[in-house]
Amino acid sequence: MKLLATSPGVSQFDCLAHLNVIPSADVGKIQDELSEILAKRHKIDHYEIITSPEAIFIYPIEELLPDTTSPITATASLPRTTTTPQPMPVTTQILTTAKTIRTTPIQMETTTAVVSSSTETITISTPFMETTLAERSSTFKDTTVLSSTSLTLNTTTCSSTVSPEGIISDSYFNVNVNVTIKGSGDPKNIIETWLNETLSSEGISVLHFKLVTSSTHARKRSVETKSSKVIGKHPQLSGTSHSCVFHAQVTTSSNIVDTQKQIHWLLEQPYTSGSVWLDAQPQEILISYIGPCPEHNHHTRQGLFKWPQVGVQRITSLSCKGNPEKTAYRECFLDANSNNAHWKSPDLGQCQVVVNSVSDLEDITVTNDNAEDILMIIKDLIHENKDLDEYELSTILNKLADVINVSVITPPLGGVILNITSDILESKSDLLPFTNSILTITEAVGDQMVGLNGNSVSLTASALAISVVNIDQENFHNLTFGVSSTNKGFNPEIYINQEPFDGTVAFISLPSEIQDRFPIVNDTSPRIQFQFYSVPTLFQSKNDPNRKELNTYVVSASVTNATGPIENLREYVAVTLRHLTTKKKDENVQCVYWDFNMDGKSLVLN
Predict the structure, then answer these.
(1) How would you write 210-262 as a 3-class SS string?
(2) Given 106, 481, 489, 522, which residue has the most CB atoms within 10 angstroms?
(3) DSSP states of 315-351 as a string?
């Protein structure tokens, strides 16, 4: 196995495997089954191994290695055998080469790998493999079964990347360069001219060029003018340092690594134009490959579309589910501000809607991959139907709970769930049978949210709002939550640790004593969640013979994973609520709270 290149979170490898197939089987069948297995994604712990189907080459070993004592090397690509299947010996030997990409959640600095002749050991953090580049051999401790045929992987050896000859395609790369310029002129114009004369003249297109600031440059290089001494091709060249990023598009039949090396070599050549000198040291040139858009199963109102892997800047098409004669289109797009290609929203204009009602959601299983798609479908369905019956409301709330259970709840995703919940609260549906379910969903969003910007985040929708605050126990004294501006059509405004003012409609203050109930968890900050609801009918009690109505909005506070009930405090939890309609002198007003233990049907006097 050979390390080809790395980019943030991705490492590319090329491997060559010698396989024994026992008992005998025909060559074509084994080649097909091996290709199918190797093309599948494979997850090990936090790693995901992705093999490009176009980079899998499988040959009977007798066709490549007439002398079985010779070292195994791959110098060229051969077409896969397609002759009439013939019986294989009892032990069948097959040579397999594949290019794999291992992705990890760890961010790594982009580099171009150089393999020296000295011994260097790379240990993959899985129980399967340890590779020594100098020895060029690996031992796998695993056996893969193909149908009823036993396939044993004996040894692997390193080889260079093999690409089918004569296949010309476009490859895209991220390029980060720090250059030193000596001479007068606009740095942006000088660098663009250099790239045009250096790369464009060689058939390499420069896309999305930017002269960047230190905060956006991957190496955090400053674009401010400074004096520097360049040691290398221009000894003691004093000038100004500048950083730039761009995408390089190359139309070639060469493999990825060779193309990267070509770009790198061109950029490290000294450049002069009149009185201007420009130099980019090899270590200041960072190049990473931009892979294709991956396979994506996309749930929509128009049905499920299984988009295949597609190259950068290419458009693919699929037949519409409701009418196969019509076509849906989607583009794999390279954005100027991204280091990766991504799918654009599909063009489904020709496709008819097949998910027409909430009942159609029953057949869709919510997964982490389709959770956001399901939320978009639910949002559309609610906008079309403002009066959900009990079955429809139950189905939607169950799907929202499923999304929370399978997803990593980030603030943006939490905001989508909160907006859908708000739409439900503002609908004409009968909410009383589902009050506890709605409160549980809202609570779960705040409890499970990750990726807070700082120690807190507030999410608002027209009918409700939540604030999540991670607590610094050493500096906790008290905490307040206030809400204002609840005019119809506008989201409420939230403020933390501010005194109430004239526009405040709900306010809650927690005393310092509450920190005694914070959970004791290593390396985890305690969390307090505030909730605000501007739809009092959500809490209407069915069992109240006097049919009392709430005359304020509803506010709450909770401690995530508290060590015990929050009760019998020496200091009060202060709650301030503004009446929605002015209280008359003879009216009897009481404070109440929602009793979860009464099947979500009762407001209890405080």
Answers:
(1) EECCCCCCCCCCCCCCCCEEECCCCCCEEEEEEEEEEEEEEEECCCHHHHHHH
(2) 481
(3) EEEEE-SS-TTSEEEEEEEE-TT-SSEEEPPPB-TTS
CB-based burial label for 105 (10 Å; 0-12, 13-18, 19+): exposed
CA distances from 498 to 164, 492, 559 (A): 67, 16, 20
- Give the pair of three-digit tokens for residue 275: 């009185």
| Dist. CA 536–CA 9, nearest whole Å | 48
pLDDT tens track for 547-582:
678 889 999 999 887 777 888 888 889 999 999 888
Give the C-alpha distances (Å, rounded to integers) separating 177 from 134, 267, 507: 31, 9, 53
Quote the tokens at residue 218.
Answer: 């991957």
Lowest mean pLDDT among 13-27, 58-72, 537-551: 58-72
pLDDT band at 49 (very low <50, low <70, confident <90, very high): confident
Q: Rg of the chain's alpha carbons, rounded to an integer?
A: 32
Domains of the chain, first to last: 2-157 (no CATH), 169-290 (3.30.70.1110), 296-343 (no CATH), 431-605 (2.60.220.50)
Given a contact cutoff of 8 angstroms between Cβ atoms, the answer to whether 560 and 526 are in contact is yes
Start-to-end Cα distance in the chain: 70
